[in-house]
Amino acid sequence: MTYLFVVIAAAAVTYLLTPAVRVLAVRVGAVTAVRARDVHTIPTPRMGGLAMYLGIVVSFLLVSRAQFLDGVFSNSTREIVGVLGGAGIVCALGVLDDVYDLDWLTKLLGQVLAAGFMAWQGVLLFQLPIAGQTTGSTGVLVVITVVVMVIGMNAVNFVDGLDGLAAGVLAIGGIAFLGYVYLLIKATNPSDYSNFGALVIAAVVGACLGFLPHNLAPARIFMGDSGALMLGFMFSAATIIITGNLNLGAVNERVSFPVFVPIILPLAVMVLPLADMTIAVVRRVGQGHSPFHADRRHLHHRLLLLGHTERRAVAIMYVWTAVLAFSVAALVQFSTTTVLIGLGVGVVVATLLTIGPLRGRTTQIHTESVDDHASA
How far apart are CA 299 and CA 304, in angstroms? Predict the structure, then answer.
């Protein structure tokens, strides 16, 4: 119930603050003009990430005295400062970019600074779920942590191209991730279900759900870099926290396989953003452009080219995220065979939804061809 309260609190605060942030964005000039690569047709305020960050911070404050999370707040003070402080740095960086359009190098340095601050506070990817072994020296751990964080931040930023897309994808994936972590912790540490990583994920889910009503098409406000980078930071931080704090010594035979894949679930959630980012970087570098050179060839743009409306393209991305994320999360509760069968069915359904317009076009072309022959 405490995690549910965090979700509700973050959602409520974000929802209530977003209109005020929208007014502020207009006043400071944080407005996205209509560009050739954009889908929206009117200038739209951005900077919605500020409302989401405040929603997350307030939700942390509200549960800081909860007895259920007493161990988290008493034993993880530095880590909490590292995560919220680093997210605050990234959010501030995003706000500046939303207002002034910073160059890519400045944004990259800011992301490294935020990730480095978090690592300095002790949040490191120091344990991979492979027999509980550490990954190397402190210097290596810091580098790995920073790289993971920067990739996560930019993956979310790359996929943030349609109304409600990034917030919805992370909300769906976050719900699967939260359920997975809760059940896994319950199985491996039945005496204490509290977990800092689960708290972070619950707050992220709440912030996304609170922002979505303002961001669904036609969006009244965009999250901007202040939101995309911050959400990517928080989600990646939760992954690092969880992989480093699982009680691997208490693993029993039933969860022996699921406990080895806590880092796979975030990858399943982020597979679309990561794939989009990878394809875009390879494409742009291959064409002699900067990896950060904007274009109109992202996955969501390709769905629009297939004939989907903006809302339907977003819904299809939601479906793919749900299929992948919940399939991996189900490993903690169901057998691998059952999960694979469910995954197969989900992939078939998602594929049919994706190629639906193509089947319609084929029928239309065939009909027109028959009509032409009949006329001849």
Answer: 9
3-state secondary structure 21-45: HHHHHHHHCCEECCCCCCCCCCCEE
Task: Write the burial class of residue 49 (CB in 10 Å: 0-12 exposed, 13-18 middle, 19+ buried).
Answer: buried
Please tell me whether the peptide bond between 218 and the residue prior to it is cis, using omega within 30 degrees of 0. yes
Q: Closest Cα to residue 185, out of 174, 176, 197? A: 197
- Tens digit of pLDDT for each residue in 218-271? 889 999 999 999 999 999 999 888 876 655 554 444 444 444 455 566 666 666
Average pLDDT, the chain: 80
In single-letter form, the type of residue at position 131 comes to A
Report how far Cα 186 is from the mean position of its chain's Cα atoms: 24
Residue-wise pLDDT for 322-332, tens only, equals: 998 898 888 87
Sign, CA torsion 146/151/156/158: positive
Tokens 């929603």 — which residue? 55
- DSSP designation for 127: B
Joined together, the tokens standing for residue 297 give 């060839």
- Which contacts qualify for 2-5: CB closer than 8 Å, 24 or more apart? 2/63, 2/66, 2/68, 2/69, 2/194, 3/178, 3/182, 3/198, 3/199, 3/202, 4/202, 5/62, 5/63, 5/66
Q: For the beta carbon of residue 224, count every other beta carbon within 10 angstroms.
A: 29
Is it the case that residue 184 has pLDDT exceeding 80?
Answer: no
- Measured at the CA of 38, the angle between CA 287 and CA 291, to 5 degrees, comes to 30
The backbone torsions φ and ψ at residue 44, rounded to the nearest 5 degrees and listed phi first, read -130, 135
SS3 of 134, please?
strand
Rounded Cα gap, residues 48 and 56, in angstroms: 13
